[in-house]
Structure formats: C-alpha cells, structure tokens
C-alpha cells in the first residue's frame, strides 16, 4: 500500500506540473543536507514517505537507469510494478561531493540486490540519477566478507582530493592500461580488504582470482572512467568496459588509508542492449 501511494504521488498531476507546494523551498529543505535528502528519497521507496518527494525536481529529472523510463513518471511506473510490501531499503553508506551524492545500499527491489546510486543536485533538488545494481550474493566471499559489510566511518576529509587522485591514478594505470608492474605503489603490501563476491583479501587473492578467470577464458577489461567522486577516505570510480565480452558498467568504491588503497567494494552490471533501453539518456550520460 505504501509503495502504491508513493507511485501515485510520483506520477500525480501536482508533482509533474511542479506546483508551488513542491517547488517552493521550505525552511526544512534549506536546513537538510543533500546527502540526507538522497537518503530520504531512497528510504521512501520502502516507507512511502510523500514528503521526501519534495527533494526531487518534478519537472526536470533525468534518469540513467536504462530499464526505467525518463522522469518521475518512469520511476513511478517501476514502483507500481513492485509486489506489495516487498520493497526494502537500507542505506549502508552515503557520501557527498559537490553537487553529487552517492550511496551504497542494501535493497529488496524485485529481489535482494546491492546497489550504488548517484544523484546530482541543482538548487537543493535532485535533477539526475545514475545507478548500478547487482543481485545480492547468498554466500560470503572467500575471505568471509559480504558486498556491504566493513568500515563505514568517514574520516580524513582534508585528504579527499589526494585520495581521489590516488584512485584515479590506480584505475588509469592498472585497470585501464594494465601496468601491473606498478601494482605495489597503490597498496600497503598484501593488506587489502576485498568485498567482491568471488575474490579473497589481499593482492594475492586478486591475483588468484584473475588467474582463475583467465583459465576459464573470462576477461575483465576497463576502457574508460567517467567519474571519480569522494568524501574523505572513500572514493567511488565509475567506469565502462567489458566482462566476459559483454558491455559492462563498473562502480568501484575504495577506502584509502595513509595514502594506500585499503578496502574495496564493487557492483558490476551488464549494460542493456540499446533495443531494450527505456530512455535515451545513456548509462553514463552527462558524467
């Protein structure tokens, strides 16, 4: 019932026409951070909280999830299709970088999933959304870790720029250009916590996983990085490439400690064939 209520509100005339009750900034909207607004909108998928929709620009909302039609109407259609009472949302991590907020979330959204969501704000309202979703694993990875557990505390805010530069360099040098002889400069020996479902901790675990994939003829390639965002010790890199020969979107979250990459989470999603796109904005459009 709550999901249906929210969907009705999303596609309702008052929202889509940008009436004054939605478009006018209230005092509470001024006081709340963009990060908290994004969390409220995600939580509303589960709770049906109509007030959270005031944080979305109802007349200017661009959708980059290729399985969802553009605008709030498209989002509303998806919510209406959800089985009643099935939606669950637990935002595990949330970060803010300029006009962007990105979140790491435990979902039940047409089944258990893990996702990264990226929101862009203008004048205090959400105007654009990107995401990457994957089915939630039922078993821990070889080191006993899940896709979501691990450190959540944001520290070292004064090192945000340096940490973003480190991750950008790592993605370009190692993941895109394959200069594996430079691996060691980005890590503190084998001290590296891994949350990918198939890979164990440490550079040794990564090496073993890559070797196993090679034996199976599975390749993982990165061709371009579109965005590197961060807050303190956490940095998100959004990239495009192929996995097992299929066009793929990579969302990689890194935790940096003392100038080295210390922990990693990811969501890898196959990009839908263009014939199946429900909007024309592109998976990485405007990034």
Automatic annotation (TrEMBL):
It comes from the Bacteria. It holds the Pfam family SnoaL_2. Residues 41-129 form the SnoaL-like domain. This is Nuclear transport factor 2 family protein.
């Amino acid at each position: 019932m709550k999901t249906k209520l929210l969907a009705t509100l999303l596609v309702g005339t008052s929202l889509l026409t940008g009436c004054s009750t939605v478009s006018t900034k209230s005092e509470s909207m001024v006081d709340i951070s963009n990060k908290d607004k994004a969390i409220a909108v995600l939580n509303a998928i589960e709770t049906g909280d109509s007030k959270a929709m005031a944080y979305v620009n109802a007349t200017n909302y661009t959708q980059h999830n290729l399985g969802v039609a553009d605008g709030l109407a498209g989002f509303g259609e998806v919510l209406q299709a959800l089985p009643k009472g099935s939606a669950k949302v637990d935002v595990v991590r949330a970060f803010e970088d300029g006009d962007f907020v990105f979140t790491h979330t435990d979902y039940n959204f047409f089944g258990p999933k893990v996702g990264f969501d990226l929101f862009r704000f203008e004048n205090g309202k959400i105007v654009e959304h990107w995401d990457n979703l994957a089915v939630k694993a039922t078993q821990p990875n070889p080191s006993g870790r899940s896709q979501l557990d691990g450190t959540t505390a944001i520290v070292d805010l004064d090192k945000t720029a340096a940490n973003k530069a480190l991750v950008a360099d790592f993605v370009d040098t190692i993941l895109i250009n394959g200069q594996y002889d430079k691996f060691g400069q980005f890590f503190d020996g084998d001290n590296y916590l891994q949350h990918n479902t198939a890979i164990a901790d440490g550079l040794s675990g990564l090496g073993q996983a890559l070797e196993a994939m090679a034996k199976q003829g599975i390749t993982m390639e990165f061709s371009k990085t579109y965005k590197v965002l961060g807050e303190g010790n956490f940095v998100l890199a959004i990239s495009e490439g192929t996995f097992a020969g299929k066009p793929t979107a990579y969302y990689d979250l890194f935790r940096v400690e003392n100038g080295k990459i210390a922990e990693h989470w990811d969501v890898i999603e196959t990009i839908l064939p263009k014939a199946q796109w429900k909007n024309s904005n592109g998976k990485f459009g405007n990034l």
